[in-house]
Every structure is written in C-alpha cells, then in structure tokens.
Design brief:
Blueprint lengths: L3 E5 L4 E7 L6 E8 L2 E7 L1 H20 L26 E13 L4 E8 L21 E8 H16 L25
Parallel strand pairs: 1-7, 4-5
Antiparallel strand pairs: 2-3, 3-4, 5-6, 6-7
Helix pairs in contact: 1-2
C-alpha cells in the first residue's frame, strides 16, 4: 500500500495546541494551508522535545560562520500565533518524529509518522510479508521565523498544565491534591 503524504511546504499556520482541561489534555500538532488542515495527536513530551530540539537547530545555525540565512535569535512578534486550534479531526497519533534542516529552502522540516499498533501476540520481529512503509506521514516545512514562533507557543502550551506542588513535586489536580511528601 502506498504511503499517504500530507505535505505542507509553506504552511499558513503550524501550531501545537490542546483540547481538554489540564491533567486531561490531548496535545495536537495542527498544520494549515488555505482550507487544508491536518491535526495529529502527540504526547506532551513529544511537543516539549520538538520545541527544544528545534530551538537547538536554530541556535546552531546562528553560530555558523558565513551563514547566508537570517535566523532570528528571538521570536518575531508579528509571527506569534495565540489563536485556538481549528476544529480538530485527528489524522493519526504521532509515533516516530524527525526534525531537520533543509538548506536549499532555508526551512526547518518536521516529519511525523503514525504510532504503530503492536500486536500482543507478535514476537517483535517483522515477517517478510509485513509492509515496512508507513501508512501515512506528515511533512511540514517552515521558515526560521515561523519556527521560532512555533517553539515559543509550544513551550507556553506545554507549561500551561496543572500547577506543581512545592512540597512533593507532583501535579495538583483541579479537584484537590493530597501531598505524598513523606513526613519526618
């Protein structure tokens, strides 16, 4: 079966957002060009790592001698997107994700592949007739300014969860918190 590729070369919008209340949020990477919108769910930690690694790539590009690309050191304010997600129709749940740099277009590239379901009866080895190609992939290319704005928003979304208890370090739920800090 051929792989369905959801490709966004110069998206109008690329953001991480959530649906649900803190403690029960589902994270989404949503990409839009015109009326085409693709939303994939991902783990909070995947979103955090995506922002961290993207900032690392951008920071490395700034330090390259003779770098012909203008990479902003901070977020261009005109690119900040604090709007809510568009209505979400999940395309797939992200499993493996990759992040890279395309010097020919001066863009950051994100690729996301669906989380593969594991058969509990499977021995962990692929049979010769198993299809090694993923069923679909999301490929997003974004310019460096958009990438900086993406990382800023993603960090804010990830950090907007439940507050942390200063005593035990565990998240505090909206319906209360019983501290598990051991008494002396």
């Amino acid at each position: 079966m051929p792989t369905t590729v959801h490709e966004f070369a110069w998206p109008d919008r690329v953001v991480v957002g959530t649906v649900g209340i803190p403690g029960q949020r589902t994270f989404y990477l949503q990409v839009q060009t015109g009326k085409q919108i693709v939303s994939i769910s991902l783990e909070k930690q995947q979103a955090a790592q995506l922002a961290e690694k993207m900032d690392e790539i951008l920071d490395q590009l700034i330090t390259i001698d003779g770098n012909p690309f203008h990479v902003p050191a901070s977020t261009p304010i005109e690119l900040v997107d604090n709007d809510d997600l568009e209505p979400v129709q999940e395309q797939f749940r992200a499993g493996v994700m990759s992040l890279g740099w395309d010097p020919t277009t001066a863009q950051i590239v994100i690729e996301a592949y669906p989380l593969e379901e594991v058969d509990p009866d499977d021995d962990g080895f692929l049979a010769d007739d198993d299809d090694a190609d993923p069923s679909e992939v999301l490929r997003v290319r974004m310019p460096v300014g958009t990438a900086r704005a993406f990382t800023k928003r993603t960090r804010e979304v990830v950090g907007a969860g439940r507050p942390i208890c200063v005593i035990c370090g565990q998240p505090i739920d909206a319906d209360g918190h019983t501290c598990t800090f051991p008494e002396n």
